[in-house]
Every structure is written in structure tokens, then in C-alpha cells.
Specification:
The protein is an all-beta fold and 310 residues long. It has no helices and 22 strands. The protein is 0% helix and 38% strand. The strands form 6 sheets. Strands 2-3-4-5 form a 4-stranded antiparallel β-sheet, with no helix packed on it. It has a 4-stranded antiparallel β-sheet with strand order 6-7-8-9, with no helix packed on it. Strands 10-11-12-13 form a 4-stranded antiparallel β-sheet, with no helix packed on it.
Length: 310
């Protein structure tokens, strides 16, 4: 996968409801009919036409909206990326943003989709410069760059059309931004953020209230989570047990409209001891968990996206 397009992993938790049987008075026990068991989870593979099927190539689903429309990207046999939209009626549309390069490690990704079907992502042009883009449900593109940036990446969009993402400055240090629906930009960095090549502040999602969530690198070399309120107030946090050392720490990956955040707590190189998931509620309480039956990391394989119906 090329250096610019990063997948964000999703987790599904399945709860089981136990219904006790209660006896009636008079010494008789009433018969209680237990509800039928829930249906087995169903997964639908998604392969974009033209996607490669060798290691590091394939189809990646990045986001799904309330209508069941999915945005993502795929990498073809020449290692060129292309965006796709799979609507809830199973129609899959492939697209390239204007100016997308056609050589290896170039192309178009899609990172987020809102309720209106508007997609945000990034496009790498022929000169290997990255720009953000917005694609409306009718297929109209807007290409944008943070003023003064070297590269601009689109990561998240809310239902009001407000976009967040990161940009690289001339030193290739990463900083966060919010792009209002009128096209104006606000840039930011969490307190304590440190910078190196392709390192710094990495926003990933924005909810309907304009709250941005993401990750930044601190002076200890570890990653830490942050949330930025619509008024610009930034709160940083770490999942319990996260290692405060290089290539370790806390990675926030998404936020919903209730302010609940999900992410990863991980060790060195993302697969060391303590690689787990977390949920942070709107009050700041963090629960770290492992899905039942989770095993060790698997070798990198060709990508295939999955849709698990509700």
C-alpha cells in the first residue's frame, strides 16, 4: 500500500441477551418461551473491479453512513489507487479525482462519507503531491489544499460538510486542520505534539457537532489520542495500559455523534504486547477490551473488504 493511504480498522461487538425463567405463585411454574437465537452474522465480500489480488493490493472499505453507503478505495495491479462508492442497493461506482496520477503509488483514496453521500479523501497527482478532495453524491469534485501546505489529506467529513484531516508543511511535519463548509481553514496541533518527517498531528474523523478525533506524537515518541471541540478546545487522553514509548501508545480511530470514541491501544510496531481495542465514553471513561477468540496478528495478505449487515 502506498505511503499516503492509511486504512482505519473497524471492530464489531455482539452482545447476547439472557432471559431468566420466572416461577409463578401457588407452586406452579409457568412455561416461558425463550426468544429464538439471534441470526448468525453474515459477511458480504466486496471486491472492486480491477482490484489486485496479491499482497498489499486489493479493496479497502473505509467508512459507512447511516444509509448503508460505503466509501473506500482499491489498489490495482499497477499499485495505483482508485476510489469507490458502494451504495446500499449494491451498486458499486469506481472513480478517480481530477488530476490523479496514474503511476505506481499515485491515485485516489476515499476515507469518509456523510449522510448525504458526500465523500472526502485524497488524491496524489503526477508530481507526487497530495491534495484533499470532496466528491458530492452527484459526482462533482472540489479539490482543496491547506494554504501554505506541502501535502493535504482529507480524512473525515460530517453531515454539515465540515472536513478534517492532516497537512504536511514544507518540512513534511504533520498538522491538523478543519475546513468549514464555506472553504475556510483552521489549523491546529494538540499541546505537547512533537514533529518529525510525516509525524505530528493526525486527525481522522469529525462528528455532527464538529468534534474532531485523532492521534498525535508526544515528546516520549509515543502516540496519544485527542479530541478537539468545535470551539477549538483540545483534550488529550491515553488508554489504560498503553505503552509510552516509540511506535506505541493510543490511536483514536472514530467518534460518533454522542461523543463516544473507539481506537487501539498497542505495543511496538502495532503488534507487540498489549495490542487491544478501547472505547472512551463522552465522560472520558475508557474501557479496554479484546473481542472473544482474538488471536495473534496474521501475515499481511491481499485486501478484500467485508460488509456485515445489521
Amino acid at each position: 500500500m502506498n505511503r499516503c493511504f492509511v486504512s482505519i480498522f473497524g471492530l464489531v461487538l455482539i452482545g447476547l441477551l439472557a432471559i431468566p425463567q420466572l416461577g409463578c405463585g401457588g407452586g406452579n411454574s409457568a412455561t416461558v418461551t425463550n426468544p429464538p437465537p439471534p441470526p448468525s452474522p453474515q459477511f458480504i465480500p466486496i471486491d472492486a473491479p480491477g482490484a489486485g489480488h496479491t499482497p498489499i493490493l486489493g479493496t479497502t472499505a473505509q467508512d459507512i453512513n447511516a444509509n448503508g453507503d460505503i466509501a473506500g478505495f482499491y489498489t490495482d495491479t499497477n499499485n495505483v489507487s482508485h476510489g469507490f462508492l458502494r451504495t446500499s442497493n449494491q451498486t458499486l461506482t469506481v472513480f478517480d479525482a481530477p488530476g490523479a496520477g496514474t503511476a505506481g503509488d499515485h491515485g485516489t483514496d476515499s476515507q469518509s462519507i456523510n449522510a448525504s453521500g458526500t465523500i472526502v479523501g485524497s488524491v496524489i497527482d503526477q508530481t507526487f503531491v497530495t491534495h484533499g478532495y470532496i466528491r458530492t453524491s452527484s459526482g462533482v469534485f472540489t479539490i482543496f489544499d491547506v494554504p501554505g501546505s506541502f501535502d493535504t489529506f482529507g480524512s473525515g467529513i460530517n453531515d454539515g460538510g465540515v472536513v478534517t484531516g492532516k497537512y504536511l508543511d514544507v518540512n513534511q511535519f504533520a498538522h491538523g486542520y478543519v475546513r468549514a463548509s464555506d472553504g475556510t481553514f483552521t489549523t491546529f496541533d494538540p499541546p505537547g505534539a512533537t514533529f518529525g518527517q510525516f509525524q505530528g498531528t493526525i486527525p481522522v474523523r469529525i462528528n455532527t457537532s464538529g468534534v474532531v478525533v485523532g492521534t498525535f506524537q508526544g515528546p516520549d515518541g509515543a502516540l496519544h489520542g485527542f479530541l478537539r471541540a468545535a470551539d477549538g478546545t483540545i483534550t488529550t487522553f491515553d488508554a489504560p495500559g498503553a505503552l509510552n514509548q516509540t511506535s506505541s501508545g493510543t490511536m483514536a480511530t472514530d467518534i460518533n455523534d454522542s461523543g463516544v470514541i473507539v481506537g487501539l491501544q498497542f505495543g511496538p510496531l502495532f503488534n507487540g504486547p498489549g495490542h487491544r481495542s478501547f472505547v472512551r465514553d463522552s465522560g472520558g471513561n475508557i474501557t479496554v477490551f479484546d473481542p472473544p477468540g482474538v488471536g495473534p496478528p496474521h501475515p499481511e495478505m491481499a485486501g478484500r473488504a467485508l460488509l456485515r449487515p445489521a
